[in-house]
Each structure stands twice: as structure tokens, then as C-alpha cells.
């Protein structure tokens, strides 16, 4: 399968690198100059859970590309600009693997090809140009986002990942919406709380911080139900608690971003919950408080926080490199 990974930072480089190990896959990473140059010159170095170097194609120009599949792995606040570039290309399908809600709608509104929703609990951090650390394996779920001949291609995409020994599952349109809302609850509970506390995810495993999980999860579940997604309170709380336990020693991506003085994805996580709840006439005070606090931090960011973008090039500024989490 010909695959473009649009947004080769942390998770995009990891998944792109794993896919590039499959002889039948032809992978092109779309990323920023320092990373692309390093991949072109030295190959993409995967470290952490496994250590190997692989040589996908790489480019900084995401326009005019053609492939069977484009995976979208930019931060959510870059999805609109990514969609504009993807629109100049030719793809059988585009699949978001991003966190937060709204990415698939942005892509479906901009593109004529089938759009798939996706979520993954694989974990990666781009340490330096050309190098990404694989710090967590989990699952990857894809499904048709809207009825635009997605059914066949969703199964092909899941198979393409399984060929790379990535634990990928194909679900139907209702299934992917439920999985994305469940991941939204996980991110809504873990990301802003650990970011504000500058703590690892495991801080939420014990009281008093653990007492935050249920109210956040309940608010997300109630909002999901209000928009027609069958997400129960108990299962949502259990899902968050399970991820807290499974990633106890991890730093959430939002904590990573805050430590580095970088913009977060709060608007598509807790902000999305607040907006949908408002439309449904539901009060979600805990999500609103977290959204407000992270936005307040973003408004004044850089004061006293490291501005190191962590990409190892020592420049300490956000020069188009990113290290995500
Ligand atoms: N990292 C992880 O383990 C996981 C991440 N996710 C989600 O996946 C998404 C990506 O996360 P992550 O990989 O950490 O983020 P990163 O910031 O590490 O990667 C995104 C990369 O895309 C680049 N980029 C953005 N727009 C363009 C463009 N138009 N052309 C070329 N490159 C572009 C960014 O560069 P620049 O910063 O310079 O704009 C950055 O290098 C997020 O939604 C995240 O929540 C989900 C699960 C796990
Ligand atoms: C699941 C979790 C919370 C793992 O840290 C994550 O997706 C993130 O950090 O963005």
C-alpha cells in the first residue's frame, strides 16, 4: 500500500517507521525540514521498545501527493492547514489518528475522498531530528467516519497496520465514534490534570487526585449521550482508570507540552466537551474549569517554563521542530 504520513513528528514517525518495515508498503513522511533532512540522510532511527533504522521517503512539501492512504498525525490545531495541503493531492482514503474531537469533521469537510476516524494508544516522543522513541504500545482502531464508501477501505487500512504487526482493529461508523469519545474522556481526565500538576499519569491513581477522574468522566459520558453516542458513565470511568494504571509512569502529551511552553490541544479535548455540552444544555463545570485553567496558562505561557522544544538541536526555540508526546 502507498501511504503518506502527514505530520511526521512523534506518533507519525513511529507509525510511519513501523509501516515502512513492510516490503509491500511504500511510505512517505511529510514533516519539517530538520527531521526530513535527517531521515533522508541517516534514515529514521526508532529507539525505546525496539531499536532499528528504516528508510521511508520524506518531504517537507505535503502538496500534490498521491497515495492509497494519507494518515493525519499533526496536532489538532494544524488539521485545517493539513487538510488544505491534502486537498491538492489524490488519496483513496484519509485517516486521522489524532487525539481530540473534530479532526475527522475538518477533513471530511475539506476532502472528497473517504475519511476514516482513528485513535491509537501507541506512544512516541520525537527526541531529535531523525529519531523517535517508542515508549508505549497499545491499540489502534480505525473506522468509517461517514458513509462515503468507507467500509471497504477501513478494513484495508486495518490490514495494512496489522501487516506491520501493529494491533489494529476495524470498527463500524458507530464504533469509531464511541471509541473516539471514550479516548476523549481519557484525555479530558488525564491530560489537563497532569499538566497543571506537572505530574505523571499515575498521580491520578490515588486520592485526592483520583477523585477528579469520576466527575470529569461522567461529564464527558453525559455529553456523548446527548449527541447520540452510547457511552456509559461506569465504562467511561473504568476506561480512564485503566489508562491511568497502564500509563502511570508516562507524562501525558499535555504535560509534555506545558513543560516546554508549547501550545496544547485543550480546545479539542475539554473545550470540545464544553462546547457540545453547551449546545445540549448540559453543565460540565469540571471540564470547563480545566479548559479555562489551561487556556489561562497558554495566554501567559513562556513565563518560567522551559522554552526548550526538546528536539535535541539545542536551539531552545520553536523553530519548526516539535517533539510531541
Ligand atoms: N505522541 C504520541 O504518543 C501520541 C500522539 N497522539 C496524537 O497525535 C497527534 C500528533 O501528536 P504528536 O506526534 O505527539 O505531535 P508532534 O508535534 O510530535 O508531531 C506533529 C508534527 O507535524 C508537523 N506538522 C504540522 N503541520 C505540518 C505541515 N503542514 N507540514 C509538515 N509538517 C507539519 C509538526 O511540526 P511543527 O510542530 O513544527 O508544526 C510536528 O513535527 C496529536 O493529536 C496527539 O494528541 C495520539 C496518541 C499518541
Ligand atoms: C493516553 C494518554 C493520556 C497517555 O499519556 C494520551 O493519549 C496523551 O498523553 O495524550
Automatic annotation (TrEMBL):
It catalyses: (R)-pantoate + NAD(+) = 2-dehydropantoate + NADH + H(+); (R)-pantoate + NADP(+) = 2-dehydropantoate + NADPH + H(+). Residues 307-325 have a biased composition (Acidic residues). Transmembrane segments: none annotated. Its EC number is 1.1.1.169. InterPro entries: 6-PGluconate_DH-like_C_sf (IPR008927), 6PGD_dom2 (IPR013328), ApbA (IPR003710), Ketopantoate_reductase (IPR050838), KPA_reductase (IPR013752), KPR_N (IPR013332), NAD(P)-bd_dom_sf (IPR036291). Keywords: Coenzyme A biosynthesis, NADP, Oxidoreductase. GO terms for biological process: coenzyme A biosynthetic process. Pfam families: ApbA, ApbA_C. It is an enzyme of class 1 (oxidoreductase). Pathway: Cofactor biosynthesis; coenzyme A biosynthesis. Residues 299-325 are annotated as: Disordered. GO terms for molecular function: 2-dehydropantoate 2-reductase activity. Residues 3-146 form the Ketopantoate reductase N-terminal domain. Residues 176-296 form the Ketopantoate reductase C-terminal domain. NCBIfam families: apbA_panE (TIGR00745). Catalyzes the NADPH-dependent reduction of ketopantoate into pantoic acid. Catalyzes the NAD(P)H-dependent reduction of ketopantoate into pantoic acid. Belongs to the ketopantoate reductase family. This is 2-dehydropantoate 2-reductase.
Amino acid at each position: 500500500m502507498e501511504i503518506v504520513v502527514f505530520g511526521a513528528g512523534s506518533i507519525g514517525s513511529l507509525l510511519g517507521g513501523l509501516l515502512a518495515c513492510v516490503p509491500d508498503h511504500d511510505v512517505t513522511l511529510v514533516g519539517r525540514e530538520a527531521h526530513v533532512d535527517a531521515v533522508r540522510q541517516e534514515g529514521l532511527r526508532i529507539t525505546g521498545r525496539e531499536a532499528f533504522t528504516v528508510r521511508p521517503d520524506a518531504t517537507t512539501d505535503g502538496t500534490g501527493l498521491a497515495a492509497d492512504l494519507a494518515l493525519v498525525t499533526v496536532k489538532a490545531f494544524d488539521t485545517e492547514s493539513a487538510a488544505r495541503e491534502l486537498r491538492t493531492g489524490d488519496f483513496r482514503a484519509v485517516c486521522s489518528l489524532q487525539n481530540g474531537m473534530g479532526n475527522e469533521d475538518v477533513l471530511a469537510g475539506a476532502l472528497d475522498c473517504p475519511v476514516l476516524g482513528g485513535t491509537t494508544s501507541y506512544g512516541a516522543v520525537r527526541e531529535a531530528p531523525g529519531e523517535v522513541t517508542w515508549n508505549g504500545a497499545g491499540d489502534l482502531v480505525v473506522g468509517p467516519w461517514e458513509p462515503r464508501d468507507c467500509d471497504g477501505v477501513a478494513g484495508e487500512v486495518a490490514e495494512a497496520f496489522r501487516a506491520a504487526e501493529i494491533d489494529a482493529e476495524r470498527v463500524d461508523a458507530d464504533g469509531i465514534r464511541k471509541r473516539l469519545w471514550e479516548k476523549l474522556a481519557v484525555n479530558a481526565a488525564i491530560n489537563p490534570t497532569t499538566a497543571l500538576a506537572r505530574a505523571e499519569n499515575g498521580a491520578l491513581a490515588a486520592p485526592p487526585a483520583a477523585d477528579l477522574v469520576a466527575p470529569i468522566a461522567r461529564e464527558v459520558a453525559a455529553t456523548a449521550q446527548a449527541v447520540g453516542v452510547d457511552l456509559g458513565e461506569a465504562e467511561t470511568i473504568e476506561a480512564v482508570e485503566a489508562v491511568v494504571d497502564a500509563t502511570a509512569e508516562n507524562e501525558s502529551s499535555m504535560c509534555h507540552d506545558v513543560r516546554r511552553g508549547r501550545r496544547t490541544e485543550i480546545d479539542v479535548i475539554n473545550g470540545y466537551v464544553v462546547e457540545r455540552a453547551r449546545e445540549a444544555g448540559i453543565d460540565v463545570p469540571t471540564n470547563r474549569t480545566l479548559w479555562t485553567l489551561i487556556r489561562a496558562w497558554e495566554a501567559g505561557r513562556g513565563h518560567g517554563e522551559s522554552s526548550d522544544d526538546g528536539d535535541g538541536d539545542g536551539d531552545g526555540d520553536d523553530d519548526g521542530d516539535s517533539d510531541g508526546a
